């Protein structure tokens, strides 16, 4: 059963602010979002940061790999100018600080574990441990609706997360579900599948639901498509267009 919000702001504030930044989070809040998806990977010192790409250059003004820098160095870099000069003071957020801010605002989190190649196990373990510690109270009282959902394209990262924080729910990210999607999801004890909506068909949606998994889609940017997916039984989705698709129109699933 999906016990979480139906609609999430993708990468913090969708495409209305630089992705995976505090500015994005603020933008999402302005549009009424209280649920967010963001990406997390490890810096050189093993400290997780909120970032999508394993290399600098696209969203962060710099060169090389994320694992060439310590987290504090990344935090001082410019992760906003690519979007607009007004955002040049946005650094790369430290995961624990970003998550603590989400928590303080009551923003529910889908934390996408996005390991750089070769760092799958380490990233899954670190992120899951930190998230578990942050939500120890919710987990102790069984308040799983408040605890974050950990997702990843990497089964290795999800398996590591399961070992490190068995009480936190996990979701398998799959662009296009392979024939053995159910076996893969069960192998990591996933509660949900997160699928690219462009490859979803009604029969697959029904099969995922019938198998007892939650079904989440990324990244849905028109209200018409969102309505269609929900009519297929999709539980929730994230969107880049937080201006077009508002949470008030998409209440928590029953
Ligand atoms: O978690 C859903 C979605 O964010 C997965 O793709 O590349 O946007 O992280 P990506
Ligand atoms: Mg993501």
TrEMBL record:
Residue ranges of coiled coil: none
InterPro entries from the UniProt entry: GP_PDE_dom (IPR030395), PLC-like_Pdiesterase_TIM-brl (IPR017946)
EC supergroup of this enzyme: hydrolase
Enzyme Commission identifier(s): 3.1.4.46
GO MF annotation terms: glycerophosphodiester phosphodiesterase activity
Domain GP-PDE: 5-249
Protein name: Glycerophosphodiester phosphodiesterase
Native organism: Massilia hydrophila
Gene name for this UniProt entry: ugpQ
